[in-house]
Amino acid sequence: MAFNPPIPMVDLKTQHGRIRSELDKALLASAHAGRFINGPEVAVFAAELADYLQVEHVIPCANGTDALQIALMALGLKPGDEVITASFTYVATAEVIALLQLKPVLVDVHPDHFTLDVDQVAAAITSRSKAIIPVHLYGQGADMEPLMALADKHGLFVVEDNAQALGADYQFSSGIQAKLGTVGHIGCTSFFPSKNLGCMGDGGALFTRDQALADRIAMIANHGQSVKYQHDVVGCNSRLDSIQAAVLQVKLKHLPAWTLARQQVADRYDVGLTGLDQVAVPARITQGSHVFHQYTIKVLDGQRNALKQCLADAGIPSMIYYPIPLHKQKAYASVDYGAGFPISEQLSEVVLSLPMHPELDESTQHIITQTIQNFFS
Ligand SMILES: *Cc1c(COP(=O)(O)O)cnc(C)c1O
To answer: Domains of the chain, with CATH numbers?
Structure first.
């Protein structure tokens, strides 16, 4: 069976269609202003994002991977220093660690929340540990409060990989809330088109509350200079284009409504999938919100791949994020990971992400959940 138009995982065409006049105006204005690099749109967008996140400094850059790399460069780490992160994440997180000649120390994740297991982080700390990178996978936070306490105790930096959870809140036991990405020393995000806040190409940003770190990050992203042609540190070239910033300015205004729509889509999936012993719907943490970059179920009876095929046959896309944990990847196989990471390995065999976007309507969702219900009946 095929749907016309086909059911997409992410529906940017519809999303952009609904705000087309705003986008066209911003795109044309930016294009014709001719300030393609470091135009005024970039600083205005950075200020608006800082206001939304309630964070002192936002430094835009070229993409989310660069954001992570620049964050680690800004911490002044030495080759061989250890950086602890999750074995179950997108490759970018570990890639930048290895690229900078630092040592990626992988640890397992929580089986229901898919984020760093804080006890295992504690067990992995050595005298060479310098930083921790929690990944807020699928749209909700790693447990930042105990993680920050652990980092403080050992003098470690925390760099949040917030590429999937922009806009999500984290709530401390005191009741105080903060946006994810603003809890650690540095937060990183991506504006890849399919992220919750995406541009029309590549983009990324770093957040920090620390003025000295912000200055250093801005310097590194701009060839290590704060005065033109005066290079104080080795940097790189990582910029957000003015046109992308103009697009992001428009889309940021809609992010709160889109986040709410994602949460409603998720709740409808939960209802549509009730009664299935074989399916675990996404667990929500109590200490914060979930912004559902992905709606990821666990298929518990070994039928994940069969379900994926059944959905595909019915014209319904689904994705496996991620099919191979990092410690099983060839590029990272040279390190001895001991007994491996059983939860990450198990998750890679049971997770399945269903179509998720703010535009997903009830009748399409009904077809998706009915197909899953029928598969198991
Ligand atoms: C998307 C993503 C990145 C990288 O972002 P790019 O902009 O594609 O470089 C990093 N980490 C996670 C968890 C991501 O989902």
So the answer is: 13-107+114-249 (3.40.640.10), 255-376 (3.90.1150.10)
